[in-house]
Amino acid sequence: MLSVHVVRRDFRHNWRNSASGKALDFGGCNSTALLRPIFLLTGTCESANCLRQLMCSLKYGAFGLRVMHMEHAQTVQIRLLEESDPPSIAAAFKNMGWNKPETQYQRYFQEQISGTRTCFVAIFNGQFAGYVTVNLRPAYAGFADLNIPEIQDLNVLTTYRRKGIASRLLDRAEAEVARRSGVVGIGVGLHPGYTAAQRLYVKRGYIPDARGITYRNRFVEEGASVVLDDDLVMHFTKQLPAG
């Protein structure tokens, strides 16, 4: 049985498919036209176009109604790092098995106050979910020499992944950079743990800066031996629209 949950400003009703074709009353709105597509499921609607018309009507708010899907009912807030955040952030990553000390976020907050870094925090349904920072004074020479701000330290708790939170954080970080620069930089690790990040950045329009790879911000010479860990990085840039 199909159930579509419809939310009005002051009440909720359920629509259920019915072979009777009887229209339901939604607060004075004649819903016969809206219900016809549902009857398609029982063979009483003439055209599949009815279903498309219904979904478009609901999507764009016709009749003062809107469909409330559970996955979309969850809210994400992106805000600046606050002084009270470091203990809860460090604890959240500790519970995930990651060692991210509270002092790291205290330093981020002090750098935010001084104007050298901005840290954005994602709150998902009232709970900390992740963060990203924008470093206005990156150590990587390829960015520092050209005054390119660098997006750094994008992290989302495993519980909240695949919900679009990383993209929301990157949107906010890129918007922040666009206020002062037409180009944004980002570094990504090269070991297999970074494959998802590599794909994400390429999809968002980042391209390699064509200066090779670095280990702890030093360029790796041809033939050199290095450890494949988090410090082995390739840097990317992206052109931004004017902020």
Tell me briefly what this model is:
With 243 residues, this protein is of the alpha+beta class.
Write up this protein.
- The protein is of the alpha+beta class and 243 residues long.
- The chain has two domains: 3-73, no CATH class; 76-239, Gcn5-related N-acetyltransferase (GNAT) (Aminopeptidase), CATH 3.40.630.
- 30% of the residues lie in helices and 29% in strands.
- It contains eight helices and 13 strands.
- The protein has an eight-stranded mixed β-sheet with strand order 6-7-8-9-10-13-11-12, with helices on both faces. A three-stranded antiparallel β-sheet has the order 2-1-5, with no helix packed on it. The chain has a two-stranded antiparallel sheet with strand order 3-4.
- Helix 7 (165-178) links the parallel strand 9 and strand 10.
- The chain starts with a strand and ends with a strand.
- Mean pLDDT is 79; it is low at 1-48 and 54-73.
Please, what is the CATH homologous superfamily of the largest domain? Gcn5-related N-acetyltransferase (GNAT)
Biggest beta sheet attributes:
8 strands, mixed
State the helicity in percent bands: 25-40%
Alpha-beta content class: alpha+beta
Number of separate domains: 2
Q: What does the overall shape look like?
A: globular
The neighbouring-strand order within the major sheet is: 6-7-8-9-10-13-11-12
Task: Name its key features.
single chain, 243 residues, alpha+beta, Aminopeptidase, eight-stranded mixed β-sheet, 8 helices, globular, disordered N terminus
Draw up the topology in text.
Elements: E1 3-7, E2 12-16, E3 25-26, E4 29-30, H1 32-39, H2 49-59, E5 66-67, H3 70-73, E6 76-80, H4 86-95, H5 102-114, E7 117-124, E8 127-135, H6 141-144, E9 150-156, H7 165-178, E10 183-189, H8 195-203, E11 207-215, E12 218-219, E13 232-239
Parallel strand pairs: 9-10
Antiparallel strand pairs: 1-2, 1-5, 3-4, 6-7, 7-8, 8-9, 10-13, 11-12, 11-13
Helix pairs in contact: 1-2, 4-5
